[in-house]
Amino acid sequence: MPTALVIDGHPNPDSLTSAIARSYATGHGDARLLALRDLDFDPHLRFGYRKRIPVEPDLQDARDALHAADRIVIVTPMWWASVPALLKGFFDRALLPQHEYRTSPAGFPQGLLAGRTGRMFLLADTPALALPVVGTPAARQVARHTMRFCGVRPFPVRRLLGVGAANDRKRERWIAEAARTGAADRRRDDARGSRNRAAAPAEAIASPATPAAAGSPR
After folding, report:
1. Whether the predicted pLDDT of 79 surpasses 90
2. Global pTM?
3. Most CB atoms within 10 A, among 24, 33, 189, 207?
4. How far is CA 202 from the centre of its chain?
């Protein structure tokens, strides 16, 4: 089983985002590349959290891969200050209460993916000079409010800015950087060895086809 899971959140396989995801996975050498566009699943949480819908085979396979991975890497563009609907829909369907996270009686999150590390590559047309004003809210959304919420930490973010104006040489440098980062992460992962991950309850990786007993009514 590969130690790293690289999630490509771009709908277009010919995008720079996808090239960076492939480069990182190749550089790492022990990574599974999961292109969400190739999965057959409904990205809509049609009943909110009131009622569960059956988990499609592709989505269940992706959820199993999340639990099996030591490192989770997300590569995505930033669109309208957020992420593509495809990636957001994946989060909505794949990360579920009592399975990938739960809340304590006091309302604090308890991540059921704890023990894993991660990384994010965020691509944006935003120029570096505008960063103090515009920011990259998608980075906070994914790193802090999604992955860290589920227990994946540390989860550093590499922001690749000015993508729309970047020439071929700069794009090639970014792709090469992703491969080097993947290789460096592999060395770190090998040095860590087997992790002492807290044992997740059996239902954490089961197919959630029925309503959760303590699910949020959102």
Report:
1. yes
2. 0.88
3. 24
4. 22
